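User: I'll paste a sequence; please echo it back and then give the predicted structure.

Assistant: Echoing your sequence first, then the prediction.
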Amino acid sequence: MAMRPSHVIRYVLEQYKSYRVPNVTQSLPSWYTKGTNGSLDSWSRCVHGSVALTQKKAERVPLSSERFPQLKRGEFARVTDGDLQVFERLVASRVLTEPGDIEGHNVDWSGTCRGAGQVLLRPKTTEEVSAILRYCNGRRLAAVPQGGNTGLVGGSVPVFDEVIISMSLMDKIISLDEISGVLVCQAGCVVDKINGALEPHGLMTPHILGSKGSCQIGGNISTNAGGLRMLRYGNLHGNVLGVEAVLANGDVLDCLSTLRKDNTGYDLKQLFIGSEGSLGVVTAASVLCPRIPGAISVALLGCDSFAQVLQTYDAAKKMLQEILSAVEFMDRASMEVVQENLQLTCPLGAHRYYLLVETSGSNAAHDEEKLNSLLGHLMEKGMVDDGTVATEPSKVQSLWALRENVAVALRADGCVYKYDVTVPMSRFYDLVVDTRERVGTDATRVVGYGHLGESDIHLNVTCPKHNEDVFDALEPWVYDWVAKCKGSVSAEHGMGILKRDYLYHSNTGPVVLLMKQLKGLMDPKGILNPYKIFPD
């Protein structure tokens, strides 16, 4: 039976909340989330989006300057009382200096990086951002732009005492063209809010993320966030039509085009997509938004060889074509961890590998028929050993819950070492196999899951607590492994501080040199998000 549009909208825009396990927090360690004022002074266990928020009490997280002792503070000025007076004139009553107010903004979402920022500024307009950066550049004060702070590599928090520029109050939706589907909004708009504004018009953002209730469009752009349906809608390089950005010297770069075709010179907006706030602060964006699908179906398939996984993926592309929206991968260890730690139920028997295939289109009967036809073909050819198809929203959500709760379930194991990398599809699972052999019984489990359609593997290794031997076995070995097979050490989230030493693993010397030259040209004093991306 076809889902009514309102049901589909509710599923698409709220699925990450609707299938949370009610008692999941009872089995998790004490991870904490920010309070209502953005700080960590409200303590509560919670599950948010696809992962448990790992904002731990700040003093439990080592300072990044101590964790990376080889890093030396740059030749930047330190904030003085005089600077605070100027900031108060620029953004009156929106200058925060109390430790309790800033604490949560110094710690990244993974709870592994902590800066020592002492000032948080909250501009509301592009003009205020421009004035802040012009002053910081003149004074040589380092600054870190911060969106929803949902990154996992320390890219959105200070390393030392950089000034934090929070974009959270820049949350206005400027315009929406219902016919073209082009939305223009400020950079601080939370993705969930954007979708709330788009929903009445039958539109949605092209990227759907587990952290959509916290992450902001500006941060998504700055890290080139992908999401679960990148296979269908592509990444933000293709969906962002224009940006407005403020350069380090305060100049405002207006590339806020709403046109899908504009070949007048260099496409400068692309420089800010994925540059992690190091070239300029994105203050507004125009985004091409697709229609909300009229029907969604999901198949969960079980395979017992990785060759079958690849054959199944190829068959899905051929037989589903225009309605194929996601192909997600889980190994047996991934399925076991959600069953053991969260007591979720898998409708299939035990298999070495699982694929979740989603279709989204306008005709439920047509899509269901194609999906059932695919399943019949796969079973007949022996590509899958078991499978089920869901079309009702509740059942669709139950199947998605198995994939989306893997990260939550892993937290219950204790310490999790996470690697989000892309490798050639033929080597997709080899990394997991080799990692299991390398760490042996020192780890609780080694898990591989991710976005098969983008060849993006999430390698996770768990231990009861931090294990120096396991960590030393993993790094830099994982990044060396990825480099040898011509993969990328960062599929999502960017480089930040945690991956900066491995930039050359995925880029040649001349490429990195050109990146540095661009940085030097656009931010000659190096005040924007220093210590990130580039190794010393």
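DSSP finds 18 helices and 16 strands in the chain. Confidence is low (pLDDT under 50) at residues 1-56.
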